[in-house]
Amino acid sequence: MTVRVDMGQDGKGDAVAMDLEELLATRLLVQGNSGSGKSHLLRRLLEKSAGHVQQVIIDPEGDFVTLSDRYGHISIEAADYSEREIARFATRIREHRASVVLSLEGLEAEGQMKCAAAFLNAMFDAPRDHWYPALVVVDEAQLFAPSGGGEVAEDVRRASLSAMTNLMCRGRKRGLAGVIATQRLAKLAKNVAAEASNFLMGRTFLDIDMARAADLLGMERRQAEAIRDLARGHFLALGPAVSRRPISVQIGAVETSARSGSPKLTPLPEAPSAELKDLLLAPAEPEWTPPAPPAPSAPPQLASDRLLEALARSTPAREEIPDVDPEEAAQKIAEVLRDITADEESTYRSPSVLYQDFLVRCRMVGLARPPLDLSSFVRRLSAARAGIHGDPDDDWAQALEAARALPDDMLGPFLLVARAAREGAPCPSDTEIAATYGTSSLGRVRRLLQYIESKELFVTRTDLSGKRSITIPRLGWTTQPAEIGSS
Q: 451 with 371, same domain?
């Protein structure tokens, strides 16, 4: 099915259309200085293609959330959620083909980059069954794919740049069509910009940006001056989805608007300068007015006396806690952990939340003071997720000692593989490892195994039939070969 999106008119007054199916295959780069009409162009494209294709907008300033009122986009305020929750949302978005606006307003630059990287990676790692076509619009792309280092941490910059590179370089096979917009071509990573085959170049004034824009449009350097003379809302377009030769396009009107528009001149207040000075320099009003003195009455009770009485009333009577046999307590703790791991929702809850749940469950089975602090609970929970329901410190001292080089959240996957290797059982599948790691992304599982292997804790072998086995050289344990995707 061919869908042509009306973008506006050329210099002769003829309509200029964007071939949506071609755009999905060839991607788009939009460039223009602030005030050139870049966001207006993106809004026109989104409005005219709404209903024909899934749309996902990464919005640093929250300008596109107004699409939800008119076109039904789901608005997600990233500042209200954790990175893991944002990644889980992205997986569901691909599954249900929902059009969304991920608003990063309220986050600092580093937080925006972390959030965008987690979101894009989760979309990229979605199961093959969910590779539906989608426009992924990234405004202010130079923030997420900078050409050089900045004030953010290097690992954050690398993660964000890698996610943007995946979107533009490898996203097409997964149905993801990148549409990126930037104010400065010189600040956008070249390997990200070079993957676009369609270009809409707006007004820019810096020579370095004009030179790059002219190169992308196939224009001579002396013709680049034309880019400086473009009016607001006018762009030079080139690409298989719009035109085989550079043409001028005046972007058409839109039906929605951003929450924050361009500044407009308004009349200044008409007030005499003397009155205005008195108003500005008036002393600050007191934030607290002392209460009026109480009427004469009985001698007031001292504050310390009232405090002691309140404490006496609020302190519950001390109850005797019966002693519990250690073996019985250990059995009850194992049962509680077994119940927690059996709950599918527990996979995605934080350890602190699960620890509170653990304490409540223990009180319900008669353990008022379970002998596990938060750190010990995390260790036991990881072991329980790996199918080890007893105390791992007894029989698994060697494995736990070897795993000390790993972060706490990787202990569960390590013990799952160690248990299979110790028993000579088939190697756990990626799906089983993902469940102990608290993720649904098989791509993250593969990166997890690579990380553990880099620590020389795993040696992974895959035979010609595609079956994988894992050896733990420090322990001398090896799993049986098994299909990677089996469950």
A: no
